[in-house]
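Incident log, entry 3
Record: Pectate lyase superfamily protein domain-containing protein (504 residues)
Problem: checksum mismatch between cached and fresh output.
Input:
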Amino acid sequence: MLMKLKISLLAYISLFVCTQQALAQNWISNLVQLHKGGKLSYVPNAKGDILPNFSRVGYHQGNQAIPQVKAVKELSPNGVNDQQQIQDAINELAKMPVNKAGMRGAILLKKGTYEIPGTLNINASGIVLRGEGSETKLVAIGTGQRKLISVNGNGKPREVPQSRAKITDAYVPVGATSFQVSNVDQFKVGDDIIVLRPGTTKWIQDLKMDQIEAREGLIQWKAEDYDLYFERKITAIKGQQVFIDNPVVMAMETQYGGGEIYKYTFEGRISEVGIENMWLESAYQSDTDENHGWDAVWLNRVENAWVSGVTSKYFGYSCVNLGSYSKQVTVKNCTSLAPKSKIEGGRRYSFNNDGQLNLVRDCLADEGRHDYVTGAKVAGPNVFYNCKSTNAKADIGPHHRWAVGTLYDNIITDGEINIQDRGNWGTGHGWAGVTQILWNCQAVKVAVQNPYVSGQNYAIGVMATKVTGRLKDRPDGTWEGLNKKGLMPASLYLKQLEDRQGKQ
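Fresh output:
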């Protein structure tokens, strides 16, 4: 008995020592503080900028779970007109009324192979297309670059006339959720607004994007092409101060035109659409064939939607491609396999996001080029969380022309992650973005540069070889804890979500 007690005591002491050693190895970024209550607070720089809160991204800003929508129609493949019978079911469902949750119902595709020579189009709200896992296979047969599944409303945001107000603060810092405006009379809590950050000639000049090294086909940046439109909702009004639901992710400065807000409508945008649990495949002729299925799933002009449990194989461009008018979309547990195309520009963007307030999480990409990537003038916040890239053919990160406010959180790749001035690549990619944050990521090589003006980019707790980037004389980014294990919290996105929702 005494011997057992001694062994138990030694085991306890050993566990205690190991625990203390592990705790001693943990560290916290200088950009945040962890309080006794367990919540994070954010340490401002001299201008007042902080790490923004990324917790309100994805389906209903993370406030609602993705619903289990009742199936109202079941289909099985017939090998004769699979595309037509699925499209007919979608069109029939689109004529039905939506329920209180905005849903019409789900179409269940039973196990089997469905041959799709064209594109399946979902253009109405409240429709879910669901399979029975990998045994429900949709094959883009034949030739022609196309989307296999297209989710798309119509129109674009429309400004409400006479609703503009000037932001009067000389400087609105990154992370801010309020600002002073010239006139609040036309606004009320709950209004959907655009926060406009104008492009100006001085800003382009200070970024040196009017002097990109010349090459054939290159286009220097022009101020009128770089207005940024951030979709927000008013949560409170106090005096002349307007509060918004999601933070400012790029500072607004009077020297660069400041900012404005205005009310908007988007009548053609659809919502409550889901693509779930299926295998999507493209026919192809060779490893470099490009005359075949291009996007497995494409979404645009849609909000509060999701793509879950989808595997794509052999498509030339993407597994999931989120267009510039996609908002509050969650992409989760999806896999991109064996794309077929040339390995060069404009191909193999496995999970591409050009929208805002979107979340891509728990995904895998193999043999892609830019696996977790944003395009030009992408207005965040956006999050890529807990995603992996294998056999990468190019880098992860903002791709070109100024993406704003992206968190890359626990991204693992056997390739590179780069946030940099891409110079004259393409037709003048230039500065890829600002307020781009790598948190607890792993890669072979990582480059993080700060633009000359308008903010910073961050590499926090990155495990990789640090490289200078394509253009060597650019300002270095903000680095902290390079190749240092034990960053706490392990995930910034999950911790921010926990803090906001008050649950672990």
